[in-house]
């Protein structure tokens, strides 16, 4: 049965400390069952604001595909494979934790610069454990300028060679769109979908109006027709599997 469930921004779990404000689509900070709370194969979808000069010290991940999308500011990352870099708006980072990777990440701006970082971090479970750790990134600024949805990360065979970053989950794909006001775009139907509005305002046929920070979870839905009421940015996960409950 088709379901369209709107999650208002105010209803998302909020966790904060002295330098981080994290609004979470799925409970992720603390002792939570990530797999039990997942939608499709999406386990974590955090909208984080990080103060200048702050971030997470070196910590470990294993058997997870971690995607990082910067909305404002810049994020600096370093990992145990000797890779380091800075991600800015329009660039998507993908870290494959695989057999194990240690990394640190934080706001690239110094305290003196005072620029806050807003970043969306998303975790998708891989379809196989024990893969070699890896980190890669790609700038999609030019591709997004047209306003139409762009496949930016995928493990689905149909997206091979599209320019999307590879993720080790054959059932999932991430689409991003920046439709200007008045533009209508279509997002693919799927057994499971997760639409998140990072900015602006849109109207989704059958679900109503969504603003910044609002999310829409879909089950067994056909293509989504989305019209930008104001210039908007959308993140949409198309998923063709879920975890056994």
Short description:
By secondary structure, this protein is mainly β. It is built from one helix and 20 strands. Strands 1, 13, 14, 15, 16, 17, 18, 19 and 20 form a nine-stranded mixed β-sheet that branches. Strands 2-3-4-11-6-9-12 form a seven-stranded antiparallel β-sheet, with no helix packed on it.
Would you write up a description of this structure?
This protein is mostly beta strands and 245 residues long. The protein has a single domain (3-239), classed as Jelly Rolls (Sandwich). It has one helix and 20 strands. The strands form three sheets. Strands 1, 13, 14, 15, 16, 17, 18, 19 and 20 form a nine-stranded mixed sheet that branches. Strands 2-3-4-11-6-9-12 form a seven-stranded antiparallel sheet, with no helix packed on it. The relative contact order is 0.20. The model has no long low-confidence stretch (mean pLDDT 91).
Spell out the key features of this protein.
9-stranded mixed β-sheet, 7-stranded antiparallel β-sheet, Jelly Rolls, 20 strands, 245 residues
């Amino acid at each position: 049965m088709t379901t369209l469930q709107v999650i208002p921004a105010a209803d998302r779990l909020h966790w904060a400390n002295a330098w981080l404000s994290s609004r979470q689509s799925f409970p992720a900070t603390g002792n939570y069952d990530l797999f039990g709370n997942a939608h499709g194969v999406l386990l974590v979808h955090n909208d984080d604001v990080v103060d200048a000069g702050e971030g997470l010290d070196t910590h470990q991940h294993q058997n997870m595909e971690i995607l990082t999308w910067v909305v404002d500011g810049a994020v600096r990352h370093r990992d145990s494979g000797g890779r380091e870099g800075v991600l800015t708006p329009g660039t998507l980072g993908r870290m494959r934790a695989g057999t194990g990777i240690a990394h640190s990440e934080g706001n690239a701006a110094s305290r003196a610069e005072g620029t806050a970082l807003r970043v969306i971090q998303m975790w998708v479970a891989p379809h196989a454990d024990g893969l070699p750790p890896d980190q890669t990134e790609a700038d999609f600024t030019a591709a997004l300028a047209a306003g139409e949805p762009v496949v930016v990360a995928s493990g689905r065979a149909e997206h091979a060679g599209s320019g999307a970053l590879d993720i080790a989950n054959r059932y999932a794909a991430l689409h991003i769109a920046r439709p200007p006001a008045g533009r209508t775009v279509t997002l693919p139907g799927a057994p499971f979908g997760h639409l998140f509005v990072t900015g602006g305002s849109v109207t989704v046929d059958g679900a109503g109006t969504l603003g910044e920070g609002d999310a829409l979870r879909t089950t067994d839905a056909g293509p989504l027709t989305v019209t930008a009421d104001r210039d908007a940015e959308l993140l949409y996960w198309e998923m063709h599997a879920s975890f056994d409950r």
